[in-house]
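User: two proteins, same treatment. go.

Assistant:
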Amino acid sequence: MSFAYFDWISHHAEARGHRTAAIDLSTERRFTYREWDERIDRLAAHLSSLGVKKGERVVVLAANSTDFLETQFACFRLGAIFTPVNIRLTVHELAFIVSDSAPVVLVHDIDFAGMASDLQKQCGVPHLLAFGPDYEKTIAGSKRLAHRAAVSMDDVCTIMYTSGTTGKPKGSQTTHLMNFINAINLGIPVFLSQRTVHLCVLPLFHTGGLNCYVNPIFHAGGCNIIMRAFDPGEALRIIGDPAIGLTHFFGVPSIYQFMCQHPAFEHTDFSRLQVAGVGGAPMPVPLLKIWEGRGCTLMQGYGMTETSPAVLFLDAEDAERKAGSAGRPVLHGELKIVDENGDRVKPGEMGELWVKGPNITPGYWNRPDANRTSFTDGWLHTGDAARQDEEGFYYIVDRTKDMYISGGENVYPAEVEDVLYQLPQVAEAAIIGQPDETWGETGLAIVVRKPGQDLTETQVIAHCRERLARFKCPTRVMFIDALPRNATGKVHKPTLRTSFLENAKA
């Protein structure tokens, strides 16, 4: 049995329309649920007039704003598929995503008008819609939506593209049911309610920004304060301001690193902050201790775009005792750690983490190949190595894939290596993640020059920055005579890590 999709914003507009739904720090606009419901309805009507209907995609290329979020909910009312894209990517990188998703409309910030125009020409997008004065005129001039589409909880509502291990992005599909289940899975352990006031600093095009905790808070009827781009000083000011009464905050480890290094950190009042969540990458224990020293316990978790994202959560009372753990499973979800044959391992043994449940993606957009290799009997292969202790706490130990995480963003070496091989002077190249105090990890490029060719570290990095988002670019380049390979000819990255990382420590 499939149930109808329930519109959270409309419900709260009727039940508690006077309460503040969203505040946009960059424009100083704030909307009650009743006001926001009307804006979303008018935007939905306009998108409908452009040909957006159930199942069609709407791509959004924009920084954080309330406009970004109202576009999401307008798509939901039409049964359309909201497709946010990473603003850090180049036009070359975005072109594949836009072509693959084939949107009817590309919505964008004025700041990205040039990129949007290029993408429209390259990918044949029928319509562009720019946030700003014209967008406001469009909303003001549109009537309320006359007819809402028949949308079920099983319908796909969002596509988020993640980099693939082959360098080809994969569009992870999210259903309305997944969003609902995630709101429950996160809402319970972090105590979301109508009185929740949350500051969003992570990019909304990322599941960490959109679904930890923004969308679950709208489900609960609380208030989201939207910061266009993270500013550590401004974030600390908002946290400490009694007039704002902030209750919740979420960030990746680098966010907390920047904040504790800011001069305002030592005198910021954290007493009103009920929950400070962290995810996206393993949290260094020394950094946890710094925040605990200010009376602020960071609650860790683990998840993926494909899992809505919540999978594991570490309650505050266990945070210090189980430092380094990603916690226990959320309420609605199944987990197991398996060996190479897919059989469960014993507590304490390491294996690959598999997850299953109503919070798991139905699959990747236009990628039957990835769907065949990523699932077994409904179990999603996370690609992460994990172990479970005797008390049931999970630890993400290592990655079975070569992917590393830089500033909360997944980086897949194959994509970067493809760019390195575009240099005519390069004979061989490999990328590994190296520890970084600020970003968690950054890329180390290991390059073999062709005989008689000159190539410098500066040239390699400049080449990458022209073709890749900054977080994907290596920050260091080492030159060697040959890459180590296994018997099948594949580059042996464990040897590289031993040679360039472990030996460097020694």
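Protein 2:
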Amino acid sequence: MPRFIALLIALAMSANHALAASAIGEADSKVLFRNVNVFDGKKNTLHPKMNVLVEGDTIKVVSQAPIPAAGATVVEGNGRTLMPGLIDAHAHIMINAHYGEIERNMDPYELGIRSVAVVEQFLMDGFTSVRDMGGPLFATMRAIEQGLIVGPRLYPSGAFISQTSGHGDFRDRGDAGFNHETVGDLSNFTRFGIGTVADGVPEVLEATRINLRNGATQIKIMAGGGGSSRFDPIDTTQYSKEEICAIVEAAKDWDTYVGAHIFTDRAINRALDCGVKSFEHGFFASKETYERIAEEGAFIVPQTWGLSPELANSPLMPPEKLPMIAKLREVYGNVGCDMLGAGAKVAFASDWVGDIDDADRSRRFEIYWRTQMFDCDGKYDSNFEVLKQLTSIAGELLAESGRRNPAPGKLGVVEEGATADLILVDGNPLKDISVIGGRKTWYSQPKPADNPIETRLVVRKGGVLYKKTVEKPRDGRSSRPPILCHAGHCRCYRQRLDYASTEQHAR
């Protein structure tokens, strides 16, 4: 099945492959960013008037002094901000339509082809790495690595692993397998490899090992209930200690780790006992539990829109669960402050599932909404906290994949020796989060095709420059489209630039 999805993607892109090979495959071996203010991912300041030399996929020199770089492509920063490429530590690239559509009216090949548009949008929005926490993303990942399509560096978990009656059990009352009198499993989420239901130590070990065999960089389990599912209340604890510990040990055998969908003190502490490394969501826990997460060197990966009043407008959220969510928001509205106060490492998560445009809108809203959740009445510089969550902290989390990590070096920082995942933005994100895409509205945002983030001028991932819209000719238009557009992605032309013809783009 994954191989066939890869074939379909390749066929869909075959008309553009020749251009892609010449425009994307032949990366600039040496690039000098000159006169940039650097946000390094760690410090709450911009380092002014810096020069940064990139060779291949590595940052070689960061210096205030001029850098001799014969033969380098020069990008004139003119005082703009150079910063690490953004990292989304919890996304669902293959859940790119609404649940009901996936269950009733879609096949895995369509989801695979739609993922091409999703990963392109991630990259053009400045996200150079994405940790995917549930879905058969392996074919898309390979297509990116092979240069067939463009997108961020992917960290797939494969099918999330759920117990019967857990957050990954999407069978409905009328489906075979819902009751013990029937057998079978008719959930498309399971059939397509988005999730898998496994009970008992032997079954969870098999599910874990299948994901690792397919190329998972980490393992995702459902260790608690959820808000978007119908039959597992959000307060439930899922999987026994024996099952969780078995999964963690199997992941450790492959030098990687387990992340858990989870919310409550009881569930989190059970998972901590087994060595789970990241806690996806984790809203409804105590400060004492967050302190234990910090002591264990683990991570919290919350999507804070889950505590936003805007959630009521989500087409995904079952209406019957909204009163519960509203009550939880009243009780746990200061959870961001508790997380930071405990010293826990918090990574950025968009965690939207559903329509492609809604996912993009949600990601942009999440960037803004986190500045509200982590402000804590002015106790913290929330822009800085969010930027760390998007860069250096998320980079630390990705590094937990050990030898399963596809990155050639350190991510989320601008420093010598780090991987050259970089974006150049017009403005200071420490003062204005909108320059990296933060938006105060959610569903009322225009479609991304009509609302490009024009302050993101350069996107580089590793050894390849994918977007460059810095230079301005005399007529005020960009001197050339993003390099991504040279690869024949005509949708990208319409979104971002106003050129007369595709022939002009190709040149």
